[in-house]
Amino acid sequence: MTEKRIGILGGTFDPVHFGHLQLAGAALKECSLEKIVFIPAAHPPHKEHLNISSFRHRLAMLEIVCSSQNNFSVSHVEKDLPKPSYTIDTLKHLQRQNLDSQLFFIIGGDSLLDFPGWKSYQDIFKRVHVVIANRKGLQKALLTDFLRDLGFTQVGKRWKGIHSMKDVLFLEKVPDSHSSSIIREMFIKNEIPRQYLPEKVINYIEANNLYRTP
Fold first, then answer.
1. Positive or negative, the Cα torsion across 23, 28, 31, 36?
2. With contact defined as beta carbons under 8 Å apart, do 150 and 122 qualify?
3. 65 lies in which domain range?
4. Does residue 213 belong to any structural domain of this protein?
5. Is 214 inside a domain boundary?
6. Distance of alpha carbon 152 from alpha carbon 149, whole angstroms
7. Per residue of the chain (214 residues), what is the pLDDT tens digit?
8. What is the sign, positive or negative, of the torsion defined by CA atoms of 17, 18, 23, 29?
9. Which of 51, 60, 62, 88 has the fewest CB atoms inside 10 Å of its own CB, making it the most exposed?
10. Residue 18 within any structural domain of the chain
11. Beta carbons within 8 Å of 174's beta carbon, 6+ residues apart
């Protein structure tokens, strides 16, 4: 039986924007995935000091954008897992739910460099394929040097690991660098960031009076 290939894209998504959707679309195409599952973080440990919109609103905005995309879906799994929301715990849970699937964990290059500060980060490489989207202005050599330090070796377009680590892949497409914080600031200034957000997400934000105060 052929294993399914599922992409996992986590984040705060406060709000979800075109950059997130471009990243998901690139991974879907370049990695030959069957679908992308968006995982909004319930209580991200590295953002506990920030004022993040409620999980309910962030989940609802993702459901809006996924409803019109056959290959996109959203999971509320982190709402039910122990807090704070550690990536390794979420991935373990998703693996138990998808025993017939290969999981591809999609991250930005800046997040890869932060991996040593993540809980059990080396175990992430052993459980799932890691798909890296480089960021504009970030030198790819920093990322490849990091992988080599972990024991990865480039073989064609893939990076092969040691000690049961799964493959790492780089996306060729570099998504636009949209900033959720800048988008929120635009709403505070009564500016409508149509260049960054789907119209239905804007309508939801306005209907629920999100981001109107600092």
1. positive
2. yes
3. 4-207
4. no
5. no
6. 7
7. 678 999 999 999 999 999 999 999 999 999 999 999 999 998 777 655 568 899 999 999 999 999 999 999 999 999 989 888 899 999 999 999 998 999 999 999 999 999 999 999 999 999 999 999 998 888 999 999 999 999 999 999 999 998 899 999 999 988 787 889 999 999 999 999 999 999 999 999 999 999 987 6
8. positive
9. 51
10. yes
11. 133, 134, 135, 136
Question: What's at 91, amino acid-wise?
Answer: L
What is the separation of C-alpha 189 from the centre of its chain, rounded to a whole number of angstroms?
28
Number of domains in the chain: 1
Residue 70 structure tokens: 């056959």
> How many C-beta atoms lie closer than 10 Å to residue 81's C-beta?
15
* CATH, residue 144: 3.40.50.620
Work out whether the CA dihedral 52, 54, 58, 64 comes out positive or negative: negative
Concatenated DSSP letters of the chain: -PPEEEEEEEE--TT--HHHHHHHHHHHHHTT-SEEEEEE-SS-GGGTTS-PPPHHHHHHHHHHHHTT-TTEEE--HHHHSPSS--HHHHHHHHHHH-TTEEEEEEEEHHHHHTGGGSTTHHHHHHHSEEEEEPPTT--HHHHHHHHHHTT-EEETTEEE-STTPPPEEE-SS------HHHHHHHHHTT---TTTS-HHHHHHHHHTTTTS--
| Structural domain includes residue 135 | yes
Residue owning tokens 């138990």: 96
